Amino acid sequence: MFFTQDSLNLQIIGAFQITRKSTSFHTTGRNYHVVSQRISGDAQIFHRGDIYSLKEGDLIYLPPNIDYAQSTDGESIIAVHMKINGYEGEGIQALTPQDPAGIRSAFQRIYEEWQAQKCGYQYRSLAILYDLLADLHVQLESAMTHSREFDLIKDAVQYMESRYTDSSLTIEQCAARSSISTVYFRRVFRSVYGISPLKYLNSLRMEYAKRLLASDYYRVYEVADMAGFSDVKYFSTVFKKETGSTPSEYKE
Hints:
- It is a single chain.
- With about 250 residues, the protein is α+β, with helices and mostly antiparallel strands.
- It has three domains: about 1-145, Sandwich (Jelly Rolls), CATH 2.60.120; about 145-195; about 200-250, Homeodomain-like (Arc Repressor Mutant, subunit A, Orthogonal Bundle).
- The chain has helices at about 100-115, 120-165, 170-175, 180-195, 195-215, 220-225, 230-245, 245-250, and strands at about 10-25, 35-40, 45, 50-55, 60, 70-85, 95.
- Strands 1, 2, 3, 4, 5, 6 and 7 form a seven-stranded antiparallel β-sheet that branches.
- The longest helix has about 45 residues, at about 120-165.
- It starts with 8 loop residues before the first strand and ends with a helix.
């Protein structure tokens, strides 16, 4: 996105809240940059064979001097028009932010400052915009890091999901599938999934055990073995901690 540049010298030249009914239109010859957030409604933007599908909360950046077409069944957006000294843009860029409500609040404040035009409004609007872009930069970096971490362990996760009924499966074996140490695997796994790999493994086994118990066809010790637990007592302990009921109670 354009805000990942090392430094940008921005000048806001306008902030607008735009509401459209169902329409299609073509835009050409704008000599300024635009960044906007979609408050409501969906839209599609067409440019040189590419299609950008936008939904509520999404951001889009439009550089100057490009031609594009847009269609919508109805929309409301807040758009900030800017000059960026020394930067001509690198094409249309769309982004789904991690915190759309927080981003919407920032766009609303910029719009309100610009409409009120009280003393110093240009500086206040620009300060909000810089803070907004800084937050988006952090969110994008976080998403990229998350994606790299997921790619690092995805083979191990697929291995776990295909072998979880094997009671001999260990976290060490899963880590080896990603060619990383067990300690680092646990750290990355928690960063991506928010829980430990052992808890994730047990959750896979628990869901399968619940289906087996619900069938009312197997005894508890059989379910434990089939779900990947070599110790029926440990299975019962984990099951009760997870569900609040013993396996026998769950069957009933």
